[in-house]
Amino acid sequence: MAFPLHDHLVQSLLTAVLPLSSLRMRFPAAPFREFIPMGRDEMKKIKTMVLLLGALLLQAALLTACDPRRPAVKKTDPDAANREDTPAAAPPVTDPSNLPPYILTHADAEKLRSPLVLAFVPDPLPKTPDVPSYQGLEAFRGFVQEFLNRAMLLPALAPGRRLSVFVEDDPTINAFADGYQRIVVQRGAVEGMDQASMLELLCHETAHSTRNHVAAQVPIADQVFGTKAAPSAAYESVMNEANAYLNQQTVNGVYTHAKASYAAIQQRLLAVVAPYNTANKRSESEADIVGAFTCAQMGVSPAAYLSAFKRGSEIIAASMAGVKSPESIADGTKLQVPPGEMENFFYYLFYLDTHPTHEERIEQISRLTDVIQKEFKPSPPLIAEWKQNTGSFLDSSAIALIGDEAALTGRIVLQGLDGAPAVIMPPLDPREKALRSRIRTPQN
Ligand SMILES: [Zn+2]
Predict the structure, then answer these.
(1) Is the pLDDT of residue 56 over 50?
(2) Rounded to the nearest whole angstrom, what is the distance from the C-alpha of residue 297 to the centroid of ligand 1?
(3) Cα–ligand 1 centroid distance for 168 (angstroms)
(4) What is the DSSP letter of 416?
């Protein structure tokens, strides 16, 4: 199993260094006698001192290198002399003062520990229909549902949840939680992810559910995107601009990119939807950390969670290789947009910005390791069970995916008409589309 192995390796490396006896063997004894003529006892004392000092220095160097939480003591540090005489206490981990509002501090993370799971609050939006499940992965779906529901019975996760799990027949590497205790995993994630990153993803999605994130965002979404009863003039206005732009730039299905006009409208859109984007990013940050707590309760160490997160990010990045950002389209580029793809193209150009960057997320998980550690329950049976039961569904394809563009599906390719490279884009998240078109659907 990828998770505990990493920790055990680090631990066994450290314990291997600790016994001084094994290090003594490596010091040559002969040179002392040749260059320092003195009595046998004196020589023995000096040898012991030198060996001890060498071993201590080596240990210190290895500990500093292996444990990122232990900062190197600077020579100029005025307190260094005092510290040498006392056993090193774990230094308090401080948060940078310039964190964005959607990234958690230590105090924020501590608050999320009690309670880890909130009482279920149903999403006030109309109940979403059940997702048709992909039959090809029914055994996987059934196992994951049962596994997560047993995890939800862990005492620390009270009052728990009764989760329904679906595997959607969608080739994108993604998963989501709705406001009704449902976790939807897309087929692409099962095909593309490995055991560790899939479990991390499920812990993240479960956290969205257990923190009632969908319900919490409804008032902000209502305010930003408007409702039929209370339309948002600012959002309406910028969507009208975007529609007018796309109509003007598209003739007989051929779109001509006007870089400056496009960028100005997209900038206005991002300003209008900023409160929603910030709230959404905050939910993502929370789900990463509550997900880490949840996984830790199942037996995933903070280090294993972080490495699974990084691996998941790599897999997703590989699946997006070649996808162009709208910002990277050159001015004047002409693209053939089939009529059936015009709405997707609209949302591709005029996108929201709902997730912190991978770098921000990795920094946060890494910085909050000490808080996650407090939820870590080593070696419960759940983690072994996960490893035993999901190997046939996960792992092998994840390895194949890295660097393999042929494995990438679910994207829309728009042909360039004047020799420009084709624009490739991921399909739009259908939930986002539904949210954004609550008042009106773009005309294009
Ligand atoms: Zn999320």
Answers:
(1) no
(2) 19
(3) 17
(4) B
354 alpha carbon to ligand 1 midpoint, in Å?
9
Q: How do strand 182-186 and strand 164-168 relate by DSSP bridges?
A: parallel
244 alpha carbon – ligand 1 mean position (Å): 32
Ligand 1 centre from 122 Cα, in Å? Answer: 18
| Structure token digits, residue 149 | 């529901």
The verdict on 320 and 429 lying in the same domain is yes
Distance of CA 63 from the midpoint of ligand 1 (Å)? 35
How many CA atoms, within 13 angstroms, populate the side-chain half-sphere of residue 267?
Answer: 7
Q: What separation in Å is there between the alpha carbon of 287 and the centre of ligand 1?
A: 6
- How many domains is the chain partitioned into structurally? 3
CA of 205 to the centre of ligand 1 (A): 6
Check whether residue 198 and residue 251 sit in a common domain.
no
Q: How far is the CA of 254 from the centre of ligand 1 (A)?
A: 35
Residues 28 and 174 in one domain: no
Compute the distance between CA of residue 421 and CA of residue 121 in angstroms, rounded to an integer. 47
pTM of the full structure: 0.75
Residues 174 and 186: beta-carbon distance below 8 Å: yes
Q: Which of 113, 167, 161, 147 is nearest to 371 (CA)?
A: 113
One domain, residues 202 and 246: no
pLDDT at 410: 55
* Residue numbers of the domain that contains 161: 106-210
* pLDDT of 31 above 70: no
User: Are residues 10 and 133 located together in one domain of the fold?
Assistant: no
The tokens 């996650």 sit on which residue? 372
Token representation of residue 57:
């220095």
CA of 286 to the centre of ligand 1 (A): 9
Is residue 53 located within the same domain as residue 160?
A: no
Residue 387 domain-assigned (yes or no): no
| Distance from Cα 19 to the centre of ligand 1, integer Å | 45
CA 279–ligand 1 middle distance (angstroms): 12
pLDDT one-digit tens code per residue, 380-418: 789 989 999 998 888 655 555 544 444 445 566 777 766
Among 442, 318, 366, 397, CA closest to 103: 366
**Residues ≥6 apart with Cβ < 8 Å to 424:** 322, 323, 324, 411, 412, 413, 414
34 Cα–ligand 1 center, Å: 68
Q: Of 120, 209, 200, which is closest to residue 165 (Cα–Cα)?
A: 209
Distance between Cα 92 and ligand 1 center (Å):
29
77 and 141 share one domain: no
